[in-house]
Specification:
Blueprint: H1 11-25, E1 31-36, E2 39-48, E3 59-65, E4 76-79, H2 110-120, H3 136-146, H4 158-178
Antiparallel strand pairs: 1-2, 2-3, 3-4
Domain UBC core: 11-162
Pfam family, one: UQ_con
Protein name: Ubiquitin-conjugating enzyme
Length: 182
């Protein structure tokens, strides 16, 4: 595959590359996100469901699409795994998404958006574009099924993606704890 060409002097491209590097260099055991090799503006994310919720046993996968003017304008989000909270493959309306540009802060980034998105799992979906109302039992069934979801673009299951993320986070923590202070 040919390497995509982009203007590395563009502030948007520099910001996207910086965020990708930060997520790679300081991984979390609970979430991960990375741009597609073919398109820096499309990212795939995977995160564990919020603890102590109907989503707790789930691993959720989706897409983040960054606008050409990122970070001045907010990204859009779509889930690719059923959750019982958000519709699949439909842009969702959140205060951090392109549906509410007035609340977006350019200082926020993909990591902040992922943490917020994860917390939105437990909010009331009434009247929300892309939101679903489901029982906890339905959400728990989706959570269990989500672990084996395999993204056609990534070629890995949600379980594999988060195991890799956890291993990277553990390795980073181990490395930082071995650095002598002084």
């Amino acid at each position: 595959m040919a390497t995509p060409k982009f203007n590395s002097k563009s502030p948007t491209i520099r910001r996207i590359l910086k965020e990708a590097a930060e997520l790679s260099n300081a991984p979390s055991p609970d979430y991960t996100a990375t741009p597609l090799e073919s398109d820096l503006f499309e990212w795939h994310f995977t995160f564990r469901g919020p603890p102590n919720s109907a989503f707790a046993d789930g691993i959720y996968h989706g897409r983040i699409v960054l606008p050409p003017t990122y970070p001045l304008r907010p990204p859009s989000f779509r889930f690719t795994t059923p959750s019982g909270r958000f519709e699949v493959n439909r842009e969702i309306c959140l205060s951090i998404s392109g549906h509410h540009e007035e609340t977006w802060q350019p200082a926020w980034g993909v990591r902040t958006a992922l943490v917020a998105l994860r917390s939105f799992m437990e909010t009331d979906p009434k009247g929300q574009l892309g939101g679903l109302e489901s029982t906890d039992a339905v959400r728990q069934r989706h959570a269990l099924a989500s672990r084996s979801f395999k993204c056609p673009a990534c070629g890995k299951s949600n379980e594999e993606i988060l195991v890799e993320s956890k291993n990277a986070a553990d390795a980073a923590a181990s490395t930082s704890s071995k650095v002598p202070s002084g």
